[in-house]
Structure formats: C-alpha cells, structure tokens
Specification:
The structure holds 2 protein chains of 2 kinds. Chain A is an alpha/beta fold. Helices cover 36% and strands 22% of the residues of chain A. The radius of gyration of chain A is 27 Å and the shape is elongated.
Chain lengths: 376, 338
C-alpha cells in the first residue's frame, strides 16, 4: 500500500506579485522523509519553500498538507503543524536563547503569551535535543553561527511540528556544524517521523541525507526523485550549467577544469595514491596521462576529470598487453614519469613494466617538486 | 538576582514616580510643604490659604496628571513604532508624526477659532490623529521605497520640518487673539491642562494602552521578523495596521494636549530596555508607561522651575536629556555590530 504523502503540491505555480517564476511544480514527500531542493542560485528554491510554507501567496495551484488545502488552514492550526528555519539572520535585542526558542510556543500559549510549566518543559526538551542546553541563558546575538542555527532549529521544534521547512540551513556553517545539523535532521526524521523539506547548496550532503531530491532549474523543475536517480554527473552538470570543471557523482566532489594539451608527465597510479599527484599537477597546469588504471579504482574517477588522457583497464582484470603497449608508447614521449605507488600486486603487475621502462630512460622522478624544476 | 530584576526595576520606577509627584506638587513659585499639600488634597487642613488650594487643585495637579499620562503615552507610542520598524531609533517625533499632528491641530484651531467656535478636547484629538495618520502614511510610502532605516529617519525629519514650518507660517499670520495660545502650544507644554482635558486624555491613553497590552504577544513574535511571526500564526498585516493605529492615536493625543514633545519616544523605551534587561513586550509596555511618566514629570519640573517665572518649553528639556541617550544608543549599537 502506498503511504499517504505528508506534503504534496498540485500544479503549483509560484512567483512574486502574481508573476509566475516557476510553473507546474509537482513535489511530494512522505512522512518521516527528507526532501531536498537543489539547484543554482536564483532558480527559485527559496520561492518554492516560501510558497509551501504559506509565506508567499501562490500564483496558482494547491499545496496539500496531509489531506488539507494549506491555503484554507487557519494560521494558528498551520503553525502547530509546520515550522520554519529561514536564511535571514535575526537580530533580536536582549533575548536569551531560551527566549528565542520559547517564541516557538506561540501557537500554544494564551492571549498574553505567558509560558506554562509545560511550555517551559518543551523549550528545555527542544534545546536538549539540539545539544544546546548550556546556551539557554546566553544572549542570542552573542552566540556563534553554528550555535545560532541549532537554536533556530530548537525554536522550530518547539512548535511541535509534523513538518519542518528549512531554507539553506547550512549556509554560514563550517563542515563540522554542517554535519552536526544534518545528522540532527536525519535523527528527527527517523526518530520523530518528522518530515523535512529544505534547500541545500552542498550537493554531496544533499545526496547523502535526502530521501528525495528535487532539481530546481530556472526554466522549471527538471527532476524529482531519489538521490540515486538524480545524482548523475550529466544531470548535475546541466542543472548548474557547469561548463568548466567536473562533478563526480560517486563522491559528490567537484574538480577544477583539467589542463589540456599534449601530456608532459606520465603518472603510474592506483588505489588512491595517484589522486594527490593528479591534483598537484593540475594546479601547476601540467597536462598528464594517468595509467594504467582499473575502471573501478578510486584514482580513475579523479583521473577521468583531470588527466589529459587515461589508459583504463576493465575492472577485476589483470592489466592486458595491449594497454601496456599503449601506455609505453605515451610514456616514452613524456618529459617525466611519477610513480606514487609503493608496490605492485597481481592485478596491476603490468604497471611494473612501465616503471622499469621509465627508470631505464631516466624519466622517473621522485615527486612533484622535481617536476617543478623541469617545467621551470 | 536575575529574577528579582524586573520587580526591583518596577519598584524603583514607582518610588521615583511618587517622589516626583510630591516634588511637582510642592515646588514652584509658591512653595508648599508636603504636609500642607496633603492637607489640601485631603481637605483636612483648617486654615489654608485659598490661593494655595487654587494652585494645587487647578494648576499643579492637572498639570502633573497630564505630564504623567502623556509622557507614558509617548513612550508607549515610541515602543510600538520601534517594534513596527524593527529599529530602536523610530519614534513619533523623529518620524514626523508629532509634527503632522501639530500641523493638523494648528489648522483646525485657526480655522475654527476664526469662526468663533471653541473646539473641545475630542475634536483636537481627532484633528491630531488625522494629521498623525497623514504623516504616518507618507512615512509608510517612503518605507516601501527605501529599505534603509537611516534614510527613513531622514525622511521623517524632513516631514517634521515641513510640517513645523507650515505651522509657523500659520501662526505668524493668525489673528492676534489666537497667537498667544497657539504659540505656547506649538512649542510644547503641559501647562494649561484642565481637569476635563485630563479626563479625556486618560480615557484615550488607557484604551490605547490596553489595546497595546493585548498586542504584546504578537509583538513579541514580530521581534523575530515577519517570516517567523507569520509562521507562528500571527496575522502580520493586521498587526502592522494595529501598531500604526495605536501609536498614531497615542502620539496624536499627546500632541493635541501638549504639542510636540521630542525624544521621549526613543529615549524612554531604550532606558527601560537597559534597566529591565529584557525585550519582553508584556514587561516593557508597562515599564515604558511608568518610565515615560517619570521622565516627563522630571522634565516638566525642570521646565517650570529652572528659570522661574519664565517657563521653558517642555521639548527643550526633554531634548537635553533625551537626545544624548539616543546618541549613546546609536554609538553603542554601531560598536556592537562591528
């Protein structure tokens, strides 16, 4: 049986002042899932999030929360189901973190907004959930960005929502705090069955945390699916219009554009040893050939992006004579050879021939620093 | 200590208020001892000078009442505007709202007095409210165009100048009989308040203050910004309209009875925030009311006695004490942000 969607849009058109920006948006997410919007700056991720969160009037179409039309829900009712973490930073005067978090109790308090014991308990629990109890009495403007984002998340949790909408929650955060925040969200989704809808700039993180990914392109939504469906190199590069450089879907990593031209250096790599060498050579602007690499080698993914030429062998096969011949041919025409490998195994035994040939020709260099001397 | 801060601060304000009330009744050209004043107020004295009774009952008491009520109104009006614009430098005077009210009142007075009609307190408030709303409308238009708060304040000051100069021109060409009245009032003063005036201003200010108290919950949500307020279920549009109406009503009421009074609306809320160390509106609203009353009683006392028998205009005194507070606040905020 198909689970009921927590949030679903139907022929949604969003935009400012009734001017359509993106049309016919179909997004859906199930309870306890994490949905991430990715896409270039200015594509309309925030606009979609604002529309979904009823902050912006819809141009047309409908947003359903469970089975209810979100546009017809009373604001107080919606506030108990959906909470927000926005990008813009708030600068409240004289408010402690406890006060900021407690503001999330708004839909539950009475006419004067006085907190009951129970409300205070919820505030404390929310702070504890994001590991920010010790911040409770600190002044909100005086805490760090990482702490601030955790407190804002606690504020959102304090509303006891079923769905939480976050607009680029990881901006301004360093990697440790990015990971901390996202693992918190993952925990919330898994433990509390909280539905999370957010936008992210970090593709690698989006790929790892999301159950569903929506690619938002200025010309309209391009794809909506699981990360495995969406994160192919071609899709991501076309989504962001990447022309210089390369996106590697396996690691979610980016590589700078490679130096093209006739290879001047030959790198005998494999098993991860080649990657730092490839990157150094690329930084120096030296075109190189990488070989012979198995197609399932980690070096292969990076070499593919950076090397002028890669000589590749089938996975799990010993390096064949044909590839060795081709490699020797190129190696002999190079100015230098680097071999960051410390030894050879049965699968890449053929590369030993390359190393011996390089030594015989006197082309073998000890490291990239020697290459610098040659290149001048 | 932290928990005691709020009750202690309230206690301090109440003590100051009582002290200033006593001073304001006793000190003056005719100095009276507190026990004499007490006898006059409670009608228990036997052989009291009838002039003293006149002075206390018909001059000093209504005057101090109006200073207290209107001072509180100004401070609350300032707090509402600061919430609205999310900026501590907003206030009825700098945004030109007081001056708009002043112009409208001057126009009404000259027009009606010219026809020999004496206008009542309610009509004055109505005229002032209209003027305040017109200025406010202009400021809102401007705030839609410029997002920068300093520009908005400059715009407000300009509106204030235009309104003031038009008022000055009107006063210059008004009939001799109007001038004395009008001139005093246009400079700002708590003198000349009658018990009838006090009753009317009490009703208006109390109603507006109650309204503000009822808004304290959405106001505190609004302090986190529009987006969050809306997410918490606040009807932001309605709140904005309510804030504007209440703050305009309060400053209109002040202007109708005492003319434009500067800096109370900014300085008092800031002083109260520093004193109470909180931004909870439910605490700040009554605090500002009390604080405004204390501030204006103090300033009015100085205006009255400093160069007696010549009286200073209340604005010159409030500016001397209020403007440095505003400057200090601006400098400190700049420092905190850098």
């Amino acid at each position: 049986m198909k689970a009921v969607e927590k949030l679903r849009t139907e022929h949604l058109t969003v935009g400012y002042n009734k001017t359509p920006l993106l049309t016919d948006i179909q997004i859906s997410v199930k309870p306890g899932q994490i949905l991430t919007l990715i896409g270039p700056n200015g594509a309309g991720k925030s606009t979609i999030l604002k529309s979904i969160a009823a902050q912006l009037a819809l141009v047309s179409g409908t947003v359903y929360l469970d089975k209810d039309d979100l546009g017809r829900m009373r604001p107080q009712e919606l506030a108990k189901k959906m909470s927000l973490v926005l990008t813009q930073r708030i600068q409240p005067e004289l408010m402690t973190c406890f006060d900021v978090v407690a503001s999330g109790r708004y839909p539950y308090t009475g006419r004067l907004g006085l907190l009951s014991q129970q409300d205070k308990e919820v505030v404390r629990r929310s702070l504890a959930y994001v590991h920010a109890e010790e911040l409770a009495e600190r002044d909100f403007p005086c805490i760090s960005d990482g702490q601030r984002q955790r407190v804002m998340l606690a504020r959102a949790l304090c509303q006891e929502p079923e769905i939480i909408v976050l607009d680029e929650p990881t901006s301004f955060l360093d990697i440790r705090h990015k990971l901390e925040l996202l693992s918190l969200l993952k925990r919330l989704a898994l433990e509390q069955n909280l539905t999370v809808v957010m936008s992210l700039h970090e593709l690698d993180l989006a790929q790892k945390i999301s159950d569903r990914v929506v690619c938002v392109h200025p010309s309209g939504i391009q794809r909506c699916g699981t990360p495995e469906e969406v994160f192919t190199a071609d899709d991501i590069q076309s989504l962001y219009g990447v022309e210089a450089g390369h996106y590697e879907p396996m690691f979610g990593s980016l590589e700078l554009p490679s130096s093209t031209g006739v290879p001047r250096v030959f790198v005998i790599g494999g098993g991860g040893a080649g990657i730092p060498v490839y990157r150094q050579l690329n930084r120096m602007g030296v075109p190189f050939t990488a070989g012979v690499l198995h197609e399932n080698d980690v070096d292969y993914a990076v070499a593919k992006a950076l090397a002028a030429k890669v000589i590749a062998e089938q996975p799990f096969e010993p390096i064949g004579q044909e590839n060795i011949r081709a490699a020797l041919d190129i190696l002999r025409r190079c100015e230098a050879v680097l071999c960051p490998l410390s030894g050879f195994g049965s699968m890449n035994a053929g590369n030993r021939t390359l190393l011996e040939e390089a030594e015989r020709l006197g082309l073998l260099k000890q490291g990239v620093h020697e290459i610098k001397l040659i290149i001048g | 200590m932290k928990r005691l801060r709020v009750p202690l601060a309230f206690g301090l304000l109440v003590v100051l208020l009582i002290f200033l009330v006593v001073l304001n009744t006793c000190v003056g050209t005719v100095a009276l001892r507190p026990n004499e004043v007490w006898q006059i107020i409670t009608w228990t004295g036997a052989d009291i000078d009838p002039t003293a009774i006149q002075i206390i009952w018909f001059i000093r008491l209504p005057r101090l009442m109006s200073a207290a009520v209107l001072g509180g109104a100004l401070a609350v009006s300032g707090l509402l505007l600061q919430t609205f614009f999310a900026n501590p430098i907003a206030g009825p005077f700098v945004l030109g709202i007081s001056s708009g009210a002043k112009l409208a009142v001057a126009l009404t007075m000259i027009f009606l007095l010219g026809k020999g009609v004496v206008i009542g307190s309610w009509a004055m408030i109505a005229a002032a409210f209209l003027g305040a709303m017109l200025s406010m409308g202009f400021i809102l238009l401007l705030s839609g165009r410029v997002r920068n708060m300093s520009l908005l304040v400059v715009g407000g000051v300009m509106v204030g100048y235009i309104c003031s100069s038009v008022t000055d021109i009107l006063v210059t060409f008004a009939d001799d009989s109007n001038i004395v009245n009008l001139h005093n009032w246009a400079l700002g003063s708590f003198s000349g308040a009658s018990w009838g005036d006090v009753r009317v201003m009490q009703v208006v200010v109390k109603a507006a203050f109650l309204g503000a108290l009822l808004l304290s919950k959405p106001m505190s949500a609004y302090q986190l910004g529009e987006g969050y307020a809306q997410n918490m279920g606040v009807n932001v549009k309605r709140l904005r309209v309510e804030l504007i109406l209440l703050s305009s009503l309060l400053s209109a009421c002040v202007t109708a009875f005492a003319g434009p009074i500067s800096f109370v609306g900014i300085a008092v809320p800031h002083l109260m925030k520093s004193l109470f160390k909180t931004s909870k509106t439910l605490v700040l609203l009554p605090a500002c009311y009390l604080g405004g009353a204390v501030f204006c009683l103090f300033c009015d006392l100085l205006a009255r006695i400093l160069f007696a028998p010549t009286e200073l205009s209340i604005s010159s005194v409030t500016a001397v004490f209020g403007a440095p507070v505003v400057l200090w606040m601006m400098v400190r905020r700049k420092g905190a942000r850098a």
